[in-house]
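C-alpha cells in:
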C-alpha cells in the first residue's frame, strides 16, 4: 500500500465527514514543480491573492525578462523595478521579489538549508522577507518541500470548504479551522488537497 493510500485510509477513519468527500473525489497525485527554491518562492509571491490562471500568466510574463528563462537573485536585482511592474505585478510584489533576491544574495536567507529545518523554522526563515507571510511559507512547505502535515488556517478556500462539508452556519475562524484540522494530523497536507478539490463538487 502506498503512502498516499495509507494517508487516505487514515483520513477516512478519523473523520467520516471528510471521508465522504474523499469518496467523491477521484484519486489524484498533485504535481509538485521541482523548480529551484528561489524560483518557487518568486512564483508564490506572484500568486498571492490571485487565481491560479492569472498568476500563471503574470509569472510567464516575468520569465520573459530573463534570457533562457534563467532566474537568479543576482539577475533579479539588476532588473529595473518598473520592468517587473510592467509585467502586471503590484508594487508590493515588486518590492517583495527584490527583497527576497537581496536576502538570498547576501545569505541572510539560505534557501539550501530549508530542507533540513522543521516546519516552523522554515516559516520563521522565510517570513524574514518583506511580503512573505505565513500563508506563502505554508504553500512553499506544501508544494516545494512536500511536508505531509501542513494546514494553512489562514487560507480562505480551506475555511470555506470546512464550512461547506460540516454544514456550518458561518465561516470558521482561523482558530476553529486549526482545531478541526488537528484530527487529520499527520496528513493535513493531503486533507487540504481534498478540501480544495471539494470546492469544485
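Residues out:
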Amino acid at each position: 500500500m502506498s503512502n498516499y493510500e495509507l494517508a487516505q485510509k487514515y483520513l477516512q477513519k478519523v473523520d467520516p465527514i471528510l471521508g465522504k468527500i474523499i469518496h467523491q473525489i477521484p484519486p489524484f497525485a498533485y504535481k509538485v514543480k521541482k523548480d529551484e527554491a528561489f524560483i518557487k518562492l518568486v512564483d508564490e509571491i506572484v500568486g498571492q491573492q490571485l487565481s491560479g490562471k492569472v498568476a500563471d500568466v503574470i509569472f510567464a510574463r516575468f520569465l520573459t525578462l530573463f534570457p533562457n528563462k534563467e532566474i537568479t537573485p543576482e539577475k533579479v536585482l539588476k532588473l529595473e523595478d518598473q520592468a517587473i511592474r510592467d509585467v502586471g505585478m503590484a508594487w508590493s510584489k515588486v518590492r517583495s521579489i527584490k527583497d527576497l533576491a537581496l536576502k538570498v544574495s547576501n545569505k541572510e536567507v539560505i534557501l539550501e538549508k530549508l530542507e533540513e529545518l522543521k516546519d516552523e523554522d522554515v516559516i520563521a526563515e522565510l517570513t524574514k522577507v518583506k511580503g512573505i507571510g505565513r500563508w506563502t511559507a505554508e504553500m512553499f512547505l506544501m508544494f516545494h518541500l512536500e511536508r505531509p502535515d501542513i494546514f494553512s488556517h489562514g487560507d480562505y478556500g480551506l475555511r470555506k470548504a470546512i464550512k461547506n462539508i460540516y454544514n456550518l452556519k458561518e465561516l470558521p475562524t482561523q482558530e476553529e479551522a486549526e482545531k478541526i484540522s488537528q484530527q487529520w494530523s499527520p496528513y493535513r497536507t493531503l486533507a487540504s488537497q481534498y478540501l480544495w478539490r471539494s470546492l469544485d463538487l
